[in-house]
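hiii, so i know i said id send this last week but things got crazy w the move. better late than never?? heres the sequnce for the chain we talked about at the cafe, plus the structure i predicted for it. fair warning i was half asleep when i ran it
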Amino acid sequence: MIRQALVASAVGGLIWLDRFQAFQLMISRPIVATAIISWVMGDLAVGLYTGVLFELLWLRQRPVGGAIAPDVTLASIATAAVAVTVRASTGCDAIPLVFLCFLCLLPVCFVGMKLDEWLRVGLGKIARLAEVSLSDGRDTVVTVHFVLGLGLGFSVAFVALVPIIFCFSFALSAMVPLIPASVLRALGFGYYVVPLVGVADLLLELQEDRFTILFAVGFVLALLVGLIAGR
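okay and structure toks below
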């Protein structure tokens, strides 16, 4: 279990850098980040189920200017890693398990917000050191500060993820076999509520007619594809 926590945290730390420090390839979006984590850990389906919850629920929460949005990247990575680990040890169905992990690890979003604040303070200090190096004509030292900033960002995510993933994996692996089947069924139904809330929130932003039309067309096409595939 500790090995899974270390692997997931190492990959998660690299993905976390994509948020604003490096890459900027959108791999830090929950639907992508959870797919990568769960694929590395050997259960892609769990990651996709997890990504849908976080992606749709916080799609409109954008970090604009100095505003720090809930850290869905850190939370989704932790949730996917815990769900994969617990499923491997208990054999529980993916959907109720993912929803249970989602409920338990939701506060990690707000832990990540606080980590964001600390990291930005640290990066600000490194930036000031780099500025002094430039003013002194030591251009090559700036590269050292850049690498130091990346190392700080990775370390913050890694150190936060390891205990979260390990502790919740251990606790839920012991708890899930004790949950009655009726409760698991209820959790399975509850899973579908979160995407509906996310879609409802997203509809509030569709104030122009063309967006509403595009959504309606996409919805109808999705239904048709589902009907054809279900035959």
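btw Residues 192-231 form one domain. thought thatd interest u
miss u guys!!
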